Amino acid sequence: VTAEVSRVLASVAEAERLKIVATLIRLTGDWELAEDCFQDAVARALTSWPKRGIPDNPAAWLTTVSKNLVIDAHRRASTEQKAATRLAHEIEIDAEGGDDMDALTVDDALDDDRLRLIFTCCHPALAMESRVALTLRTVMGLSVAETAHVFLATEQAMQKRLVRTRAKIRDAGIPYRVPPAELLPERTSGVLAVLYLLFTEGYSSGSGAELVRAPLAEEAIRLTRLMVTLMEDSPQLPEVLGLLALELFQQSRSGTRLDDAGDLVLLEDQDRSLWDHAAIAEGVAVLDLAESARQRLDGVVGSYQLQAQIAAQHATAATAATTDFTRIAELYGRLTRVSPSPVVDLNRAVAVALAEGPDAGLALLDALDADARLAGYHLLPATRADLLRRGGRFAEALPHYRRALELAPSDPERRFLQRRIDEVQTL
Amino acid sequence: MEYLLFIVSDPAAPTYIPEEDNIEEWSADLERRGVSRVGNRLRPPSDATTVTVRDGQTILTDGPFADTKEWIAGFDLIEVGNLDEALEIASKHPMARFGRVEVRPVWPFE
Which residues have a Cβ under 8 Å from the Cβ of A76 and sit 6 or more positions away? Predict the structure, then answer.
């Protein structure tokens, strides 16, 4: 019986946590209390269910007990009895579905506490690191220790950051809501940026020895899927789908990015038969959905859709040599117009080099040398070195490989560059 | 909630173009919203006097408390529903384009 209880409880708690916590935050404005009361409710289930049996509706049980714990906590803390009674009343009305608490929500289709929570965690008035940390902790339900681990920070430092972030939300008056229509496009791209950062942190961690943090990437995909569901009826749907497709294409290669020794394997050298072809097929289907949603809404092709289209070209090419780099270069050209970035220009230079020859790419790199935003970015000298090497100019490539090695942030990347240096020195 | 908008000069910002200064329009918008408490320009830092009392001694210093190239050129106290509203109002202030606007929530005594 106990094994059955823990199995049911674990799955219900995972499925319901976000919904319950998000609603309690809306009702109380107290983020920590909401988390704590949910955890307490789970603990109570663990002692109560084995004795009294698993309730018919375990999700409803957890919700009710969590809400009661919140009311109890308010009764204990509140010197004014009225405040607790009012909260209890509000929770009751809310449960009956007759609430009118958020008159600011413009679109009923987006009336969802989980979505309110996600948009609030990703509010642009918070520092990017704080947005990511709070999303990991409150939306994804990671422990403080796990969240700290993602940032390579101490648990104490992470706890401080989370407390400070929640304090700013409360004290600066950041509203707990899905933004109104006029702010929605901008704020949605803000949320997607946080999700993609979570994904890339999981997919290729920026620093240290561990290059692939698989569980985090999977969690990011799970959250992106939730965003697709929650934003199904919004004009932002094509971009949310675009991000999901992009993540699926990248994730399909997660098993082949590193060899057994933990060294980086370039896209062109990867064994394509080992790619996750189910993920690629889903990515293609999701990208099609994004395109038909975009046409229905008569919108422009956004940056995540463009990035996903580029990833799709790579993911569906039979070999590296038959990849359509002309098309990829064209997509990068469109991407740089939609969201200008020197990194996009750098990638475009590579695609142009592979489509038209190294010299065409090198000419584009010259223009990027002056860009201060790329100063200290290891992939700029690494790209130049690679294009020179492809053109057979080994001696010229060497100093750029060395410069890239100095700047590279992770061990596998440093090992890769060292191997290249050794190679071109013998040529 | 009350927010104080600090209108701040920024030497790195685009050059001030008087024709593009729509401060009257901005003030009228605040009037229409009914959110303005008080606001004004400030005389330059060269007209400032800083007061410090140490060990019972009052020390007066000519100039602002911090010698920086950025200085507070004006202020507006507004009362709005939440930060998003305050940020929207701040973003429409002409000095958001020719300088910066810092939005600070007022911390009332309970």
Answer: none
Instruction: Please tell me which residue, A78 or B23, carries the higher pLDDT value.
Output: B23
Interface test with B, best of A174, A176, A184, A186 (most B CBs within 10 A): A174
The pLDDT tens digits of the residues spanning B79-108 come to 999 999 999 999 999 999 999 999 999 998
ipTM of the predicted structure?
0.90
**Token pair 């995540």: residue:** A304
Residue A238, token pair as written in the block: 């094509």
Q: How far apart are CA A422 and CA A427, in angstroms?
A: 9
Provide the whole-model pTM: 0.86
| Single-letter amino acid, residue B32 | R
- Asked if B83 and A179 come within 8 Å (Cβ–Cβ), the reply is no
Measure CB to CB from residue B105 to each of A172, A179, A183 and give the nearest one.
Answer: A172
In order of A73, A143, A166, B10, the CA distances from A159 in angstroms are 22, 10, 11, 35
**A45 three-class SS:** helix
Range 103-142 of A in CB contact (< 8 A) with B? 123, 125
Residues paired with residue B102 on neighbouring β-strands, in sequence order: B6
Work out the angle between the directed axes of helices B83-92 and B23-33 (0-180°, nearest 10): 150
User: What gap in Å lies between CA A172 and CA A161, rounded to an integer?
Assistant: 16
Separate counts of helices (H) and strands (E) for chain A: 19, 0
Is A157 within 8 Å of A207 (Cβ atoms)? no
DSSP three-state, residue B7: strand
A301: left (phi over 0), alpha (psi -120 to 50) or beta: beta
DSSP secondary structure, B44-103, as one string = -GGG-EEEEEETTEEEEEES-SS--S--EEEEEEEE-SSHHHHHHHHHHSHHHHHEEEEE
Q: Token pair 């999981």 is at which residue? A: A202
Q: What is residue B24's three-state secondary structure?
A: helix
**Would you state the pLDDT for residue A99?**
46
A280 vs A254: CA distance, rounded Å: 12
Minimal CA–CA distance to A135: which of A107, A169, A102, A103? Answer: A169
With CA atoms as reference, report the closest residue to A317 among A242, A249, A386.
A249
Q: Is the pLDDT of residue A107 over 70?
A: no
If we measure between CA atoms, which residue out of A114, A154, A111, A112 comes closest to residue A133? A154
CA gap B61, A63 in Å, rounded: 61
What is the Cα–Cα distance from B43 to B73, expressed in whole angstroms? 7
